[in-house]
Amino acid sequence: MILVVIVAFATEVKAQQETDSTFIFNYDESGWNAVDTVITVNDIIAFDTVSVDDKTPRAAERRSLEKKKQPRDWSTWRPEVKKALWLAIVLPGAGQIYNRKYWKLPIVYGGFIGCFYAMRWNNMMYNDYSQAYLDIIDDDPSTQSYNQFLHLGAQINEGNLKRYQDIFRKRKDYYRRYRDLSFFILVGVYALSVIDAYVDASLSDFDISPDLSMRIEPVVINSGMANNPLKSAALGLSCSLTF
Predict the structure, then answer these.
(1) What is the DSSP letter of 70?
(2) pTM greater than 0.85 (yes/no)
(3) Which residues, 6 or more positions from 179, have their beta carbon under 8 angstroms from its beta carbon?
């Protein structure tokens, strides 16, 4: 009996600890009335975690921290094809930077710088020889810009005038042709940079196995001639490529 009483008392104390009394005030015709309501500890915990206003600054800060991006794992990062393409079109070399292929930048910008330099040089020489050709074919003796292209001690007279006219005309056409060619090469370098950025981004997730090998071994080839056992089989070589 004593053991039963002790167990019953302990159960009542535990139930008393898990409950708490509070008062809820209701308004009716007689005024405000307090209603005694029992709220368990579990209800308080649920109210604290669920029913708390989720618009408090602390809750907003917690949500912002949860939404904060995790550090990017560059080992698993893959570029977007369209983004790489448009970056390469808008700004030459930007596609290579986006694809993280920085070693290609000297090639791209080196090609652009070389083409610009060739265009400038050929255009300058074209203008000089074009003016010299115009001066040598006119009858004005005061226009002699062609003398700067003559060798030391060389002079133009009636005997070699026709030859020098042909020389200046050919050199004028020569530098004009290479000036235009430098421009087309510049456009080609730009197009190649765009194509390279697009292809590089497209093949970024292409799986290349490290096991790349070729194996050659002898093999017996069965010709299917069952009537003649000597001709039913033949020796050959088998070539297998693993990639």
Answers:
(1) P
(2) no
(3) 118, 119, 122, 123, 126
